[in-house]
Design brief:
Blueprint lengths: L2 H8 L4 H15 L8 H15 L4 H9 L3 H12 L10 H18 L5 E7 L5 H13 L7 E8 L2 H9 L1 E3 L8 H7 E4 L2 E7 L1 H4 L2 E5 L12 E5 L9 H13 L1 E8 L13 E5 L2 E4 L2
Parallel strand pairs: 1-2, 1-7, 2-6, 7-8
Antiparallel strand pairs: 3-5, 4-5, 8-10, 9-10
Length: 282
């Protein structure tokens, strides 16, 4: 029997409770849950209700509305958010990073060899590891550069996986040969698992961050990847997010979005550099 049907029979997510959950997530994270996602929400939160020994969504909403709400937020987000990603997703983004961002920086021979990249909504780490492979292969000598990739996500479960740098062997199939041969290793004692090389992993710092809350970063970034995240937000929230990204990008810095996202008509602080790639102009 389908899990969603079982969940609906065991737990009833009423109109009032769904509206509360939708308002709660919108207020705390900016995530918008439309009514057609009601079955999905029910199915994904059932395990959490069982773990807490609760009998209804009424009880769960009372928990979120009480003193225990802030502590439970992390569990709600971990259950609701979808984390679909793979290495070198949207390959042209990484070609642009190498050819139009990193190589020109190399050619400039800057006195201050500093590079800061942010992978916002990094999921289980395939994106920041892909970025780091390009950085490690392009910046030569890499030791002379102060390069760092900040990888953030609101979901602590996927962050924990990303920190290990370990993935199923099948995940490596989307890594270009150039990078796979240099930066990917079969794990000792487990031929079905791979691990990204230490040289790449050292460039990344994984941190939990709710994009809807104040950001602790002080310096600006040269590049920000935020792909397939804004699709969960309404237009006013997107506008606020993209303008905050502009505030945290160097002038001329680059913002990457997902293929279903666009800045056109949302903010005038960027110009189109390439398909779903934007450059900060003001």
């Amino acid at each position: 029997m389908h899990g969603g049907v079982e969940a609906r029979r065991e737990f009833e997510l009423g109109d009032r409770e769904f509206r509360f959950l939708a308002d709660f997530l919108s207020r705390e994270t900016g995530i918008v849950l439309n009514v057609h996602k009601r079955d999905m929400v029910c199915g994904r939160l059932v395990k959490r209700l069982r773990a807490l020994g609760m009998k209804s969504f009424v009880d769960y909403c009372e928990l979120l509305d009480g003193p225990g709400g802030p502590a439970e937020l992390e569990n709600v987000v971990n259950a609701i958010t979808t984390n679909i990603t793979h290495f070198f997703r949207e390959p042209h983004h990484f070609d642009f990073l190498r050819n139009e961002v990193l190589e020109p920086r190399m050619a400039e021979r800057p006195i201050r060899r500093r590079l800061r990249i942010w992978s916002a909504g990094c999921s289980s780490g395939e994106e920041p590891h892909s970025i780091a492979m390009v950085v490690a292969d392009t910046l030569k000598p890499a030791e002379a550069w102060d390069a760092l990739i900040l990888a953030t996500d609101i979901d602590t479960n996927v962050l924990a996986r990303g920190r290990t740098g370990e993935y199923a062997l099948e995940a490596a199939r989307t890594i270009p040969d150039l990078y796979r041969k240099r930066f990917v290793r079969r794990m000792t004692g487990d031929s079905d698992r791979i691990q990204v090389a230490d040289e790449v992993r050292r460039l990344i710092r994984f941190k939990r961050l709710n994009l809807h809350e104040p950001w602790p970063m002080k310096g600006n970034f040269d590049v920000i990847f935020c792909r397939n995240v804004a699709i969960y937000f309404d237009k006013p929230t997107q506008r606020d997010l993209f303008n905050r990204f502009a505030d945290h990008l160097t002038l001329g810095g680059v913002l990457y979005l997902g293929h279903a996202e666009s800045l056109i008509g949302v903010t005038d602080r960027f110009e189109v550099a390439e398909k779903t790639v934007y450059r900060r102009i003001r």
